[in-house]
Design a protein that fits this description.
This protein is of the alpha+beta class. The chain contains 6 helices and 11 strands. The strands form 3 sheets. It has a 6-stranded antiparallel beta sheet with strand order 1-9-4-11-3-2.
Length: 246
């Protein structure tokens, strides 16, 4: 528990430490930010939404519109404060996804989140929350540090078949990563928070374990900036009730 308290205090009292990582590498990790009990609560809420959707175990889009617990997670003050610093203005919520990632589920191909959202590159941030310990064997994230400085990169199409528990769009295309960049696995503990720049190339490994690896993804944008709503996501700004003044 001490580690979690330190992680939370670090982000709230001195976010510049993590902000330096974010600006240099395109991502920042704050270990154990949320408690185990809080993660378990979100998994329970997400599982109910999965069941309501016909138990497909595919990612649930925009759970904050369906369950107040996910809305509260999106509005976490310390996270909003960090995002505000990262985007240089008042942050607004934009999208959430609950990812169940059951055993044997394929991961996401390499991609940049802003390929889908089409916001100004430095005005959009994603937060990935580990709701269970994540490692290579159960489908943790991998990132290509520094690729956020290249802007939006070209993509190539992939041959993808529908896969149980996964969105078909997860494997339809991938970002073409310049050869000088090397992937780094992000093995993180339950409750850890990963901040991702809009143009950081990242993906996730297949879950080759016998257990699920749930996660919550929340995306944010600087207030008033343009973005693509999307025909399925139907993205729209969410007021975070956040006061940017210290």
């Amino acid at each position: 528990m001490t580690d979690r308290i330190v992680a939370a205090q670090r982000l709230m009292s001195d976010p510049d430490i993590s902000l330096d990582d974010f600006r240099r590498d395109g991502y920042a990790v704050v270990s154990g930010y949320f408690s185990d009990n809080y993660c378990d609560e979100l998994v329970q809420r997400g599982s109910r939404l999965v069941a309501d959707a016909g138990n497909s175990l595919r990612p649930v889009l925009q759970p904050h519109r369906l369950d107040s617990g996910f809305m509260a997670a999106m509005k976490t003050p310390a996270l909003a404060r960090f995002v505000g610093l990262a985007v240089g203005g008042v942050p607004k919520g934009l999208q959430t996804s609950f990812i169940f990632m059951q055993a044997a589920t394929v991961g996401y191909a390499s991609h940049q989140d802003n390929f889908f959202v089409e916001a100004p590159n430095d005005a959009f941030v994603s937060i990935w929350v580990a709701l269970a310990d994540a490692h290579r064997g159960n489908g943790c994230l991998y990132v290509y540090p520094g690729t956020h400085r290249r802007g939006r990169l070209p993509i190539e199409s992939l041959e993808a078949e529908p896969a149980a528990g996964q969105d078909i769009n997860a494997r339809r295309e991938q970002t073409i990563v310049p050869l000088e960049y090397k992937a780094v696995d992000l093995a993180v503990t339950k409750g850890s928070v990963v901040f991702l720049h809009s143009c950081l190339v990242h993906g996730s490994h297949d879950n080759q374990s016998t257990e699920s690896r749930p996660a919550l993804v929340m995306t944010y944008i600087r207030a008033g900036q343009p973005f693509r709503p999307g025909s399925t996501a139907k993205r729209e700004e969410v007021d975070l009730d956040f006061n940017p003044q210290p």
